[in-house]
UniProtKB/TrEMBL annotation:
Keyword S-adenosyl-L-methionine tagged: no
Gene3D superfamilies associated with the record: Cytochrome c1, transmembrane anchor, C-terminal, NAD(P)-binding Rossmann-like Domain
Pathway: Nucleotide-sugar biosynthesis; UDP-alpha-D-glucuronate biosynthesis; UDP-alpha-D-glucuronate from UDP-alpha-D-glucose: step 1/1
Entry-linked SUPFAM superfamilies: 6-phosphogluconate dehydrogenase C-terminal domain-like, NAD(P)-binding Rossmann-fold domains, UDP-glucose/GDP-mannose dehydrogenase C-terminal domain
Family to which the UniProt record says this protein belongs: Belongs to the UDP-glucose/GDP-mannose dehydrogenase family.
Name assigned to this protein: UDP-glucose 6-dehydrogenase
Length: 470
């Protein structure tokens, strides 16, 4: 087996010996993509401007929590199939296919996406590529970015070799990142008209997914960019749809879980992403719906995505609801002791970017409550963002002397909780279920007052304020 990476100039004569893949940006998306590409048999080089991150990854240590990924990282850094560098010079001289997976966060002080990191990565590559290569954008970007970058890359590339360009958005979910990368629901690839070379190379990169009959959709740049944000906007809308009904069932009485199950049986609707609760957060859904609105407004289509403002507002109102409910239950927040279960934006992740749980915890603290927080993986990241909460390392430590316990991230450990696990620890037997995962009847039968989002809250007077904040 030859070891030299090589792309020749015409599609028909192209001989791929062993594709060399670089992944620019080694955060959640990039580190996953790099390790999975190595698992699929490619030689991979991860590139980042964050030296500390690169040192950690090169040492086989994953700087974030993602099930299944540490094993792949260790395996392939040890075998030498997966290496890491901060050098674009090395990447440009070595790689055949360069995936760009750098961050596209919300602009500071604005709603649009901050695409300066994508621009910088593409330009650095263009300046350092010295052989035939394909640049493949993976980051989530405003429509129009790929076409602009494709031109810019050609302008800035003065070295030897031909650069081809494609956009291949990523649909993985944190917590399922390895599985979603190795076996995605679909692959979407935006290429320039008739760029059969780019298409052939990507068919080679994704040969194992193609063998597994993963749908592979080749389209233009604009459609590829829009598919990504359309998918996230749809998911966000689905969550806010059920959460809007939560506002109604909380008011009139009713059970949001039963409602979701019942409409979800209709195959046209589907039950997934109809879990009502404290709403969506994370590094993607919130910023992506805002960036989509900002982009279409820039294009002059001001009204088109206006419904996403409602989706965003319904989502943020869920956080207000938890804070208001806590105050309603306790009479006042100042001086109250609150036990928070969960601070990551979702279970099986240590990501606290735009986490509804951290937002609620911080707001309770700012209102004068003593806030004890336990998350199986998220404490360290949360402490970097909001150091003043009392981060503890177990459920008992979080709920000790609590006037109210609030479940905000549905880790399995919390879903498994039973009333007797907390008895004797809390000041009041009061729990707010912010994710609709506890069995209300079981907690009520054990003399707990339980308030679940999406259900009417009618506390018995004597249950509330047994031990009021002092
Ligand atoms: N996190 C996720 O689950 C998914 C993320 N995405 C998209 O992927 C992109 C990346 O997201 P994450 O991985 O979550 O972000 P992240 O913040 O975890 O990682 C971004 C990385 O890019 C690096 N970087 C920034 N500028 C660079 C440059 N010029 N050259 C090299 N590296 C550079 C940063 O140091 C950081 O390590 C975003 O557009 C996001 O919307 C898409 C699907 C899933
Ligand atoms: O673009 C991205 O980065 C990714 O964004 C989401 O993935 P992710 O943010 O990892 O997590 P999800 O599982 O989608 O959850 C997002 C948020 O919605 C919340 N959620 C999810 C489902 C639900 O029914 N209810 C609900 O409140 C979760 O608690 C979480 O806060 C999408 O699911 C991915 O397909 C996409 O690639």
């Amino acid at each position: 087996m030859a070891t030299e990476g090589h792309l020749s100039r015409t599609s028909l004569e192209r001989v791929i010996v062993t594709l060399r893949i670089t992944v620019i940006g080694t955060g959640y998306l990039g580190a996953t993509h790099a390790a999975c590409m190595a698992e699929l048999g490619f030689d991979v080089l991860g590139v980042d401007i964050d030296e500390r991150k690169i040192e950690q990854l090169a040492a086989g240590q994953l700087p974030f929590h993602e099930p299944g990924l540490p094993e792949l990282l260790k395996k392939h850094t040890a075998s030498g199939k997966l290496r890491f560098t901060t050098s674009f010079e090395e990447a440009g001289a070595w790689g055949d296919v360069h995936f760009i997976g750098v961050g596209t966060p919300q602009k500071p002080g604005g709603y649009g996406a901050d695409i300066r990191y994508v621009d910088a990565a593409a330009l650095s590559l263009a300046q350092h590529i010295t052989k035939d290569a394909l640049i493949v954008g993976k980051s989530t970007v405003p429509v129009g970015t790929a076409r602009r970058l494709a031109c810019l890359v050609q302008e800035k590339h003065t070295g030897p070799g031909t650069i081809r360009f494609a956009w291949n958005p990523e649909f993985l979910r944190e917590g399922f990142a390895v599985k979603n990368t190795i076996s995605p629901d679909r692959l979407v690839i935006g290429i320039e008209d008739r760029d059969l070379d780019a298409e052939a190379i990507l068919r080679e990169v994704y040969a194992s997914q193609l063998a597994a009959e993963t749908p592979m959709i080749f389209t233009d740049y604009e459609t590829a960019e829009l598919v990504k944000v359309a998918a996230n906007a749809f998911l966000a809308t689905k969550i806010s749809f059920i959460n809007a009904f939560s506002e109604v069932t909380e008011f009139v009485g009713g059970d949001i879980r039963t409602l979701a199950d019942a409409i979800g049986h209709d195959a046209r609707i589907g039950r997934r992403f109809l879990n009502a609760g404290v709403g969506f957060g994370g590094g993607c859904l919130p910023k992506d719906i805002r960036a989509l609105q900002a982009r279409v407004s820039e294009l002059g289509l001001d009204r088109t995505m206006r419904f996403l403002t409602e989706v965003d507002e319904i989502n943020l109102r869920r956080r207000d609801r938890v804070v208001a409910l806590t105050e309603e239950i306790l009479g006042r927040l100042n001086g109250a002791t609150v036990g928070i279960l969960g601070v990551a934006f979702k279970p099986d992740s240590d990501d606290v970017r735009d986490s509804p749980a951290l937002d609620v915890a911080a707001r309770l603290f700012n209102a004068g409550a003593n806030v004890n927080v336990y998350d199986p993986q998220g404490n360290a990241n949360a402490a970097k963002r909001f150091p003043r909460l009392n981060y503890v390392d177990s459920v008992p430590a979080a709920v000790r002397d609590a006037h109210v316990v609030i479940l905000l991230t549905e880790w399995q450990e919390f879903k498994n909780l039973h009333p007797e696990d907390l008895n004797g620890l809390v000041a009041n037997k009061i729990i707010i279920d912010g994710r609709n995962v506890l069995n209300v009847q079981e907690w009520e039968d054990a003399d707990w007052t339980i308030a679940a989002l999406g259900r009417k809250f009618e506390p018995s007077r004597e249950a509330i304020g047994l031990n009021a904040p002092v």
